[in-house]
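#lab-general

N.A. 3:47 PM
ok so I finally got the sequence cleaned up, no stray characters, all 331 residues accounted for. can someone with queue access submit it? mine expired

B.Y. 3:52 PM
send it over

N.A. 3:53 PM
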Amino acid sequence: MYSQILVPLDGSELAEQVLPYVQQIAQGLKIPLEFLRVIEPVNPEMAGVAYRSGVAPYPATAESAGARSTTPTTGPRGPYLDQIAASQRSHAQDYLDRLTTVARQSGLVVSTSVHEGSPAHHIVEEAQKEPSTLIAMTTHGRSGITRWMLGSVTDKVLHATTNPLLVVRPQDYLGTKGEMKFSSVIVPLDGSDVAEQVLPHVVSLAKALSLKVILVRVTPSAADYYRYMEYSIGPYQDYSQEVDAGAAEYMHGIRQRLQVQKIASVEERLLHGNPAAAIVDLAKEGTDNLVAMTTHGRSGVGRWVLGSVADRVVRHSGAPVLMVRAREALS
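B.Y. 4:20 PM
back already:
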């Protein structure tokens, strides 16, 4: 299913909280990792200030780490700007090398790459080199020089990439060495073929990681029909029960399909109310849940617009979310 996992990092511990999950997936699927660091282009004004002060912002050698140096004899911005950029790139590579050393101790195959420019652009571009690449990143990092606001970057990547994307919402109180692993995968479905495009991903992960699959269908409650239906269709309670029966039958069919594919543990959950809220609440019932869903689905009675629901789940769920771009959405 996946040929490798691309892991964008910004140098912060928050961004590194994706690593335990990435390690579990890479070990289970036996695929390599690529750690990616994107650094900001050097601001020419900063280079000018550093030149005038005679202080290099990132001393990399014993000579440059001493007291204030004499004013350089080269041009004030061009060569000095290149020196700062080279120093930033060196620090970024050193950071990735440290993480790579730790990952390789767990038997993982890891490569690294450092780029300069727009983080979202380079993440999408790097992933597109191999369509079967899984991108894995947190929703937030830190902002500042040589770092990027990972929340906005994640949003841009989500809307631009055609690759599957694993999004992890970091927690301030968590480190990167804790036992954070998946034991179950929650699969929201709305009855459409588009939503079912996530199932091959679910099957692959469930087999490799021995995950329990929880199929979820959210339908309106009887009260919702009274509130939102603009025309009479008879007793709403009866209609609600009819929709629920159809949803349950649909999940039974999906469960049978998964069992044929040798998925040992499959559970069905029929929920009511707001789809995003119901999925988020279910995900919060455990600390080891993964939510897997497509970015778009179909709307209608007893169904929901999966695109908007997916967006809300990513923003509000504490559980990691695997987003798969539905093919229909690309046409």
